[in-house]
Amino acid sequence: MKKIAIIDLGSNSVRMNIYHINEQGGYSLSEQLKEMVRLAKGMGTDLILKKTQIEKTIQTLKFFKSVIEESSVSEAYYFATAALRQAKNQAEVIEQIANEVGIEFDILDGQEEAYLDYLGAINTIEKNRAIIVDVGGASTEIIKVDHRRMSDAISLPMGSVNLSERYKHSRQADKYFATHLDQLSFVHRGYDVIGLGGVIRTLGKIHKAQNKAYLEDLHHYEISNKDALDLIDKMMNMDHKALQRLDGLSSKRVDIIKSGLVPVKHVLQMTGGNLTICAYGIREGFLFKEILFKNAQPVLASALEHSIENICKKYSVSTEHADRVRFFTKKLTEGFQQKLTITENEMKLLDIASRVHYIGMHVNYYNHHIHGMHIMLVERIAGLTSREQFSVAYLIANHRRLDLPVFFDSYKHYIGNEGILRLKRLSIILKIAEQMDKGESGKISDLKVAFNNGTCSITLESSSQVETSIRSVLQYKDLFKKHEKKNLVIIHKGNTYK
Questions:
Q1: Is the per-residue pLDDT at 33 higher than 90?
Q2: What is the DSSP string of 418-454?
Q3: How many other CB atoms are there within 10 angstroms of residue 422's CB atom?
Q4: Which of 390, 306, 405, 386 is nearest to 353 (CA)?
Q5: From start to end of 22-170, where are the E strands?
Q6: pLDDT at 303
Q7: DSSP line for 324-369
Q8: What does the pLDDT read at residue 403?
Q9: Distance between CA atoms of 38 and 138, rounded to whole angstroms?
Q10: φ and ψ at 63, to 5 degrees?
Q11: Residue 330 has pLDDT above 70, yes or no
Q12: Is the CB of residue 104 less than 8 Å from the CB of residue 78?
């Protein structure tokens, strides 16, 4: 196992991510630090970084470096964005940091920053086309995505810090930004918006709090175009004290939030699309480009597929067993399709659950279905909504039993009683599929489902005896009868088992 550190020196904050990468190539975030140093504060039109902000940044970097050294990090990467990119005293500051901290920063130009934003967003959100907006402290990156490829991008030297300092009122900042809209000719109606950066994440937190969406993860959280614009307009009309009372707004952002929302407001107006919050960004983009896929294509064909594969590697899932359970789940789903009217989305959720149903074994065999549920509830699965992820967690919890775990009671109202009942029915498919590979023997090669009057028969293909699997499957015959009103029988080598 190795540890990788990435430090991003931004205009408002210094951020550090430390990742674990295991022997199977599975990676996970193991440490995340942030300090709002406001490096761009006071730059003004002369574009000179101020001594106080430089000193604060250096002290933060010293602390981050000490964490790197104590964490046995094997590789560390450092890059800086708009504040240092724009600063006329860039060379002196870079030299001072190198001398006092022992760190040499690469300065990203606007297009490089936009590309890393794009990778961080498109590889963690399953969208084929969108407009990505990243509002930083001293710049805003706007990227157009078509067919999951970046088709256009621009970096504007306007962010939450410098707009707030330049204009006393956010309405003035709004008018100023509007004079630059001719540079956004590639932004069209009909595109949804993916929002990155602290300002937009804060907007998502406020909306979540106001709508009591406490169970939803911020990543992939969606706000309608109308709701987003209404909330932005409401905040722009608030005074300082009113903003301070908003649940979800950090006191450290109160003075810059209103002007920081100006760029995303204009993009939402131009596109008419909904806003999806992305909790990832430039550091994750760097991880994809320079570490995970350094010598390969860093744009994933499917964010969801990559996320599932990474989870299997992180938790050392037995791929042979998982592949067989996945195969049986698919065959059973196809066989039950007509009777259960299984939707395409339900097929997707069942497929995911079949691949990761064993992740709880990473903790312990005993109650591994419950361990797996907990893991799925806290993992971030790229390409799944919170509701979909809860559903997969429920299926995992019930691949061995049907009674609803007490822990899941708090999610009942979110999924709904009908949704819970539907998941109970779907979980029977996963139960049967897992028992088809009892003992992970791989003895059953295929199966066929048939319905005849009041009976559902599953015919097994196997060259050897599979009594253990048959007996294990039939332990669910009463449950099957209860939910599907059918008798379940197994047929193998001409013999019928009830």
A1: yes
A2: HHHHHHHHHHHHHHHHHHTTGGG-----EEEEEEETT
A3: 17
A4: 390
A5: 27-35, 75-80, 106-107, 130-135, 140-146, 149-156
A6: 96
A7: HHHHHHHHHHHHHHHHHT--HHHHHHHHHHHHHTTGGGGT-STTHH
A8: 58
A9: 10
A10: -65, -45
A11: yes
A12: yes
Beta-sheet strands, E only, within 228-279: 275-277
**DSSP character at residue 156:** E
- 316-322: average pLDDT: 92
* pLDDT at residue 404 in the model: 56
Cβ–Cβ under 8 Å, residues 64 and 14: yes
| Non-local CB neighbours of 301 within 8 Å, separated by 6+ positions | 148
| Per-residue confidence (pLDDT) for residue 44, from 0 to 100 | 86
Q: Which pair of tokens denotes residue 424?
A: 């109970």
Q: In what order do the strands lie in the sheet with 495-497?
A: 446-452, 455-461, 487-492, 495-497
pLDDT in tens, 62-105: 999 999 999 999 999 999 999 999 999 999 999 999 999 999 99
The length of the chain in residues reads: 498
d(CA 64, CA 67): 5
Structure tokens at 420: 């819970």
Of 183, 130, 192, the C-alpha closest to 155 is 183
Written as six digits, the tokens of 398 are 């019930």
In this structure, what are the phi and psi dihedrals at residue 416, rounded to the nearest 5 degrees? Answer: 90, 150
Q: Which two tokens stand for residue 236?
A: 């722009």
pLDDT in tens, 404-443: 556 666 777 778 888 888 998 999 999 999 999 988 889 9
User: Six-digit token pair at 230?
Assistant: 């209404």
Q: Find, among 34, 3, 4, the residue nearest to 287 by Cα.
A: 4
Whole-number pLDDT of residue 402: 55
Residue 303 DSSP SS3: helix
Percentage, residues of the chain above pLDDT 70: 98
Q: List Cα–Cα distances, 307 to 93, 210, 323, 369, 376, in angstroms.
A: 39, 30, 16, 20, 12
| Beta strand pairing call for 487-492 and 455-461 | parallel
The CA distance from 370 to 373, in Å, is 5
* CB atoms near residue 308 (< 10 Å): 21
* Residue that is written with structure tokens 């253990």 in the block: 468
